[in-house]
Amino acid sequence: MTPGTSVPPGLDLDRLHKWLSNELPSVGGTITAQLIAGGKSNLTYAVTDGAREWIVRRPPLGHVLATAHDMVREYRVLFALQNTAVPVPRTYALCSDESVLGARFFVMERCAGTPYRKAEELAALGSERIRTISERLVDILVALHDVDPLAVGLEGLGRPEGFLGRQVSRWKKQLDASAHRSLPGAEELYRRLCDNLPPQSDASIVHGDFRLDNLLVDDHDQVTAVLDWEMATLGDPLTDLALMLIYHRLGGTAGDAMSDVAAAPGFLTEDEIIGRYAEESGRDCSSFGFYLALAAFKLAAILEGIHYRHLQGQTVGRGYDHIGAAVPPLLAAGLDAIEEYI
Predict the structure, then answer these.
(1) Over the range 261-282, which residues count as b (16 or more CB within 10 Å of their CB) and which as e?
(2) Per-residue pLDDT tens over the stretch 289-327
(3) Distance between CA atoms of residues 30 and 195, nearest Å
(4) In the chain, is it the N or the C terminus that has fewer CB atoms within a 10 Å radius of its CB?
């Protein structure tokens, strides 16, 4: 660390440098770091010694649900997927000693590429390239769900049996943990989800937050890395597809709280995405209302937790001022979605 260098919240550079020097002996005499903008959950930093660069991931500050910010889980998944058809950053080291940074964290490769978040960013590429990128988005999701958990050592990552019911309970618990205001529709959506649990699809590795801005795309429109595996588990793969589509549905109505990439010219429509996924995966997507409603409920719980932390002054970075406004529309969208196939 050099005089006058600012330290991003959540990092102690002296402690981090000492730890890195033990884990990666080639680390130089000083390091600097910057918070990478865009993350609204786990914190992501670019760390450099002037010659090399790494990514450090740690949980958010303050009020968190421990199971939603599990560094060991994320590191384990990244390590397991290294030699599969799913592109992920290479992992370097995991720190379980919370005295270093106040929480567990890990270090991984920094991959080249752009995490496209806005339709206007994609629009500059032209409709043909946008279509290609959206097709590859679906293809990567199919590739993930095709990975055999046993073959990559992830058979104990989760409990597939009863997954959907536990998801409903989990996100209700998270919503309750952030309770500080009235949220019309929350209890009704929870009740409807409990009453309409469908038969579960065959289990697979589930990313838990799969969307275009959690992928890095290079200048040749190839996906170089899938990021943010903090909620990965074994469960129903249709939950990944549904959450991505809820992001797409609400992107144009929730301001900066959600990506609006699906509005870019040439981006696959919802029907095209479902059709491509169903054809390539061989999975039955005909009864999808429950999954869309669960995705809306989950996202509402996540954003309400971020909103609550922001009110407590515990968020890091910008873009949080209006995130709470996206929660009521999500709950309403969930109630609408569950009617689509019932």
Answers:
(1) bbebebbbeeeebbebbbeebe
(2) 999 999 999 999 988 988 888 777 866 666 667 788 889
(3) 57
(4) C
Output the six-digit token pair for 171. 């996100």
CA 331 vs CA 209, 217, 289, 308: distances in Å: 18, 31, 14, 17
Residue 234 tokens read as 């074994």
> What backbone phi and psi angles, to 5 degrees, belong to 246?
-65, -40
The whole-model pTM stands at 0.88
Kindly tell me if the per-residue pLDDT of 105 is higher than 70: yes
Q: List strand residue ranges (DSSP E) for 61-194, in order.
A: 91-95, 105-108
Q: What are phi and psi of 334, to 5 degrees?
A: -65, -45
Long-range contacts of 278-285 (CB under 8 A, 24+ apart): 280/138, 280/139, 280/142, 281/142, 281/145, 281/146, 281/237, 283/145, 283/201, 283/202, 283/237, 283/238, 284/201, 285/238, 285/241
Average pLDDT, the chain: 89
Cβ-based burial of 226 (10 A; exposed 0-12, middle 13-18, buried ≥19): buried
Rounded to the nearest 10 degrees, the angle between the axes of helix 238-250 and helix 289-311 is 60
